[in-house]
Iron-sulfur cluster carrier protein (Anaerobaca lacustris), 377 residues
Amino acid sequence: MANRIGRRILVMSGKGGVGKSSIAVNLAVWLSGQGRRVGLLDIDIHGPSVPKLLRLEGTRLTAYDEKIEPVLYGDSLKVMSIAFMLSNPNEAVIWRGPMKHNMIQQFCDGVAWGDLDDLVVDCPPGTGDEALSAVQVLGTVDGVVIVTTPQDLAVVDVRKCVTFCKQLSLPVLGIVENMSGFVCPHCGKRTDIFPGAGGEQIAEDFRVPFLGGVPMDPTVAQSGDAGKPLITFEKDSPTAQAFAHVFQPLLGEPKQDTKQKETSNMKIAIPLADGKLTAHFGHCGQFAIVDVDPQSKTIRSQMVLDPPPHEPGVLPAWLAEKGVSLVIAGGMGQRAQMLFADKNIEVIVGAPVDTPEALVSDYLAGALQTGDNVCDH
Ligand SMILES: Nc1ncnc2c1ncn2[C@@H]1O[C@H](COP(=O)(O)OP(=O)(O)OP(=O)(O)O)[C@@H](O)[C@H]1O
């Protein structure tokens, strides 16, 4: 029977040890507790912790009709992890890229998931090959949950995750701030351990939703060690409630980036030569900046500006300053696209040579035709 999977939700983090697996496991168990048919896929090849967190270590896999049967946790949660494939759980996985890709492919396509409402994927930390393989193999990703801790240093890692998602057009469902302050088990007083802007500020800066915080709580680690997710293990505790609060928005339709929700005002920039879009973004003489109302799908005004001298990073900063949130371009190099993503400016490449009015009208009508990224050098 072919797998039919409703939503594929990736749980990512910019670096290791921030509680990504704990969030993924509790999310899957919580969704399952809401009556949904859920699968939990652990592709953290170098540190698969899902079996331990659910006390499923040592489970032997079975196969039927050339498909691997997922392991059942409770009545209905279906689980698959690289750890089930290792004869020795202490074994280090030393595989080259293609082997990892094949393994992830096997997990996604070769597992008899059946009908699922949600597949929660616990990714390896970082934005490297494994995460990329997961996205490629899954085909469709309905949303990404990014887990971080509150300190300033984490901003860099979150930026990488958000940039990764934007480059691959993956909707960011939101940021979770784990280990968000320590609540004293004796007096209940909350102490912030990490100085820094915090997940909420980071989410605002990157214009993605903030899902909420989960405090640093020794029972999270204890429940993990006991193989019982906190969300059911101590379901009335403030920390379990914090988990539920974070997960609640993920129950319905995936949240869109807040940037996409800002619909009352939008500025679109188009690199110009002779009054029309130029394919050579890096050498354009002028920019059209078109102010639109996306709700009524109308152009409010348009101006043409001379950009500052072209240096890496200058144009994204200049356009961000002008309030631009979308660039429609012909060709643009990867590096420039990264720099725009850093400024939360979306880029559409491969647009045809045409006037700004025509391009923006097509964009607003959902009819903008794009081809190849013509000068991706
Ligand atoms: N909110 C929390 N309070 C206390 N301990 C926590 C919390 N969240 C996670 N932990 C503990 O931190 C450790 C790392 O958590 P976890 O394995 O979920 O992180 P990870 O980001 O998936 O790590 P990895 O990089 O290994 O994939 C575990 O021992 C876990 O029990």
Q: What stands out?
A: The CA atoms of residues 73 and 79 lie 7 Å apart.
